[in-house]
């Protein structure tokens, strides 16, 4: 046989052509689904909301080497993402790899988003083939998995969640376990080490390592399904060996997750906890869960207007729209099949043994068996992720995981298997009944696969793509403005940003998301910006107290903090910043520059800074700057829930003795005056005792409206110091509702600077 014949024989039996076909078809359909003919690779395909925070990660990784610390944000102290634990490190590694080809963050971001579709399809194809799906049908359903509504809903806003290409790898391992196959086998080889490194055991370790590094959510979802699978196999097969094999995979997964989280844990040990940085309400586990109706209904971006309107009506009318989880038509049919199978199946059933004959009937039985397995996994996934499901019980122990609707992409993969194998069984029955020749049967499978892909593509891909021209115009306007500003200010200059919006996951008073304040950083390399510090620590939240001052005092404190200018985000104000601009202009004169779209205004502070330098010695000025930018701060936690995303001084509690916290992260004691308004139950003569960390206390009596003003001067020692409010009326069984507002901390040294 010639080399050409040998190569052709290899290709005809190899899976490589099918993987190449899967990648090519996915790339083709993704290009049209995203309408990329109208997009530019050098401009982000989404330029708003959480997509800006994603861009922050990518740009920081490209410029600083890793994303955890960014000296250009949260000025003057820098942004420390250790305070907002993110274990999705695989995507940052991918950013570094893609950065070898381009150092421009929009290019890297867009490339990774596009590649995520192809990688998801390839991983899904492997999983579907593990489930013994016919190659043509596996290709079609793999493309549909990559083009799941979930992918477009997440987009570049939640890019790490949209990069779900490791999920099918974990599901494939579960199928191996459910079939009674070992995960820790090695490949036969004359070299033992080589056989081990190329065997299924090595593949399993790599697969779960990638999965655990890609997303904490997907890692936890896998562990949940793995625990169920291990218990199921133990009960069914009475095999502790297989159970321990599954446990070994679980240990690897947990260890990898802990390794990814280790830098954040160590940072918390060294610098103390920051409960405000990553705060979740306990009820978020149900607010962000999913419902059966959501999975079965069309998704919000459906091309058929009547179907998208139906989904809009549902999300608008019924409670808890969550993040609009949906499976699409093909996935929904698979879910129905899974639910019907679960209704009739039993856990213990006879399985084919190695000694039984093989044949069409046995192959069909194997498909039915696999449908049962994925149906069981679907049921478990749904029981955890549905509203009021088992995830609620988990929230009693941790609130770190709240987005349980994200289990929908796991359910989607399982439901596509149920649909594909059910269709395969139906076609097999038809081919036998009608006695189709093999060639006709093969062509029929191809035609059906193309039809499934066409229907799924039309159903799952968005009717309206991104507004690429609008994004380009906005991005270009910002690029022009901040490039000019960077040329004007000396390298290393700090700029104070207004308004202050706690970062991340907060809103301005008019609803603008905090990520908008990251935009200046995305267009500069030599300037530092006060926004973007992770909320919850004095060195990040200090701009809030400064921003609450009247114009002249604000200007003086901003200059004293070492800032060279003030940047106003006019879109974060209902009046487009008109009142604030007028207030600053009264002290500083007209804005130095304004962006072409009116989004940004810049005021120069360098003359104010020079005036302070003439009044104070360098050591005095450095001490003033440290006190302004690292003040005694406050946290409503642990006892008070914030009642506003833009007002850090307002909260409420429904416990007998709620606490808020004074934060002093400097090594010296600080003399301050604390003032706030306390609102107690409106019962006549309601009283409370306010206990301060220096041992002093005040007994207060509420007025007719329940409100009472409290003022106390004290010395705050280093560390976190609690202030406790004990209400006389109320008990643990019937706790009172206590509200806190207008909380202020005035430091004597800063007051002296302002002439108070």
From TrEMBL:
The keyword Transmembrane applies. The keyword Membrane applies. The chain crosses the membrane at residues 16-34, 111-128, 135-153, 159-179, 191-211, 217-235, 247-270, 326-347, 376-401, 407-427, 439-458. It comes from the Bacteria. Keywords: Membrane, Transmembrane, Transmembrane helix. This is Glycosyltransferase RgtA/B/C/D-like domain-containing protein. It comes from Subtercola boreus.
């Amino acid at each position: 046989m010639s080399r050409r014949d040998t190569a052709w024989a290899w290709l005809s039996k190899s899976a490589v052509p099918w993987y190449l076909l899967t990648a090519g078809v996915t790339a083709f359909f993704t290009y049209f689904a995203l309408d990329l003919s109208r997009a530019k690779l050098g401009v982000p395909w989404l330029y708003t909301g959480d997509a800006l925070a994603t861009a922050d990660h990518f740009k920081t990784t490209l410029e600083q080497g890793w994303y955890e610390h960014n000296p250009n944000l949260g000025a003057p102290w820098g942004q420390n993402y250790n305070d907002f634990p993110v274990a999705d490190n695989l995507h940052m590694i991918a950013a570094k790899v893609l950065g070898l080809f381009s150092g421009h963050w929009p290019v890297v971001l867009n490339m990774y988003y596009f590649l995520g579709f192809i990688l998801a399809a390839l991983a899904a194809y492997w999983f579907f083939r593990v489930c013994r799906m016919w190659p043509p049908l596996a290709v079609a359903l793999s493309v549909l998995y990559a083009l799941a509504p979930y992918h477009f809903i997440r987009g570049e806003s939640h890019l790490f969640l949209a990069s779900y290409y490791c999920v099918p790898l974990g599901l494939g391992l579960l199928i191996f376990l459910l079939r009674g196959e070992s995960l820790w086998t090695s490949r036969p080889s004359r070299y033992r080490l080589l056989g081990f490194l190329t065997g299924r055991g090595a593949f399993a370790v790599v697969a779960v390592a990638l999965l655990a590094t890609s997303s904490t959510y997907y890692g936890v979802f896998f562990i949940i399904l793995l625990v169920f699978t291990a218990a199921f196999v133990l009960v069914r097969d009475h095999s502790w060996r297989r159970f321990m094999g599954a446990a070994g995979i679980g240990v690897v997964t947990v260890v990898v997750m802990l390794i990814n989280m280790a830098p954040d844990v160590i940072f918390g040990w060294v610098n103390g906890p920051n409960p405000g940085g990553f705060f979740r309400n306990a009820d978020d586990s149900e607010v962000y869960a999913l419902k059966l109706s959501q999975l079965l209904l069309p998704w919000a971006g459906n091309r058929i207007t009547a179907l998208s309107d139906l989904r809009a009506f549902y999300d608008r009318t019924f409670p808890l729209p969550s993040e609009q989880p949906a499976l699409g038509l093909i996935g929904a049919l698979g879910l129905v099949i899974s639910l019907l199978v679960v209704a009739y199946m039993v856990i213990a059933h006879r399985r084919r043994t190695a000694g039984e004959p093989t044949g069409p009937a046995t192959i069909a039985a194997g498909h039915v068996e696999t449908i049962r397995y994925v149906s069981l996994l679907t049921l478990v996934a749904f029981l955890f992720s549905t509203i009021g499901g088992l995830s609620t019980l988990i929230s009693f122990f941790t609130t770190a995981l709240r987005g349980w609707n994200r289990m929908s992409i796991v359910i989607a993969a399982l439901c596509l298997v149920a649909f594909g194998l059910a269709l395969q069984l139906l076609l097999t029955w038809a081919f036998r009944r009608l006695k189709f020749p093999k060639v006709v049967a093969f062509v029929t499978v191809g035609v059906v696969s193309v039809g499934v892909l066409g229907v799924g593509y039309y159903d799952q891909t968005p009717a309206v793509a991104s507004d690429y021209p609008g994004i380009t115009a906005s991005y270009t306007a910002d690029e022009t403005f901040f490039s000019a500003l960077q040329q004007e200010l000396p390298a290393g200059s700090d700029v104070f940003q207004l308004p202050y919006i706690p970062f991340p996951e907060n809103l301005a008073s008019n609803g603008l998301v905090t990520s908008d304040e990251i935009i200046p950083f995305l267009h500069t390399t030599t300037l530092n910006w006060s926004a973007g510090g992770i909320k919850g620590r004095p060195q990040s939240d200090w701009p809030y107290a400064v921003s609450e001052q009247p114009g002249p005092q604000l200007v003086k404190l901003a200059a004293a903090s070492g800032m060279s200018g003030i940047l106003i985000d006019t879109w974060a104000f209902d009046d487009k910043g008109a009142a604030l601009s007028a207030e600053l202009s009264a002290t500083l004169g007209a804005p130095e520059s304004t962006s072409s779209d009116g989004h940004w205004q810049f005021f120069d502070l360098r003359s104010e800074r020079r005036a302070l330098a003439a009044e104070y010695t360098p050591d005095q000025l450095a001490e003033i700057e440290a006190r302004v930018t690292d003040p005694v701060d406050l946290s409503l936690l642990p006892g008070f829930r914030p009642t506003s995303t833009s007002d850090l001084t307002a909260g409420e509690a429904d416990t007998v003795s709620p606490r808020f916290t004074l934060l002093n992260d400097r090594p010296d004691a600080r003399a301050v005056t604390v003032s706030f308004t306390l609102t107690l139950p409106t019962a006549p003569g309601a009283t409370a005792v306010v206990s301060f960390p220096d041992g002093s206390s005040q007994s207060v009596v509420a007025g007719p409206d329940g409100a009472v003003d409290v003022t106390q001067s004290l010395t705050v020692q280093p560390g976190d110091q609690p202030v406790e409010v004990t209400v006389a009326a109320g008990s643990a069984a019937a706790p009172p509702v206590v509200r806190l507002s207008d909380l202020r901390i005035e430091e004597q040294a800063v007051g002296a600077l302002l002439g108070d």
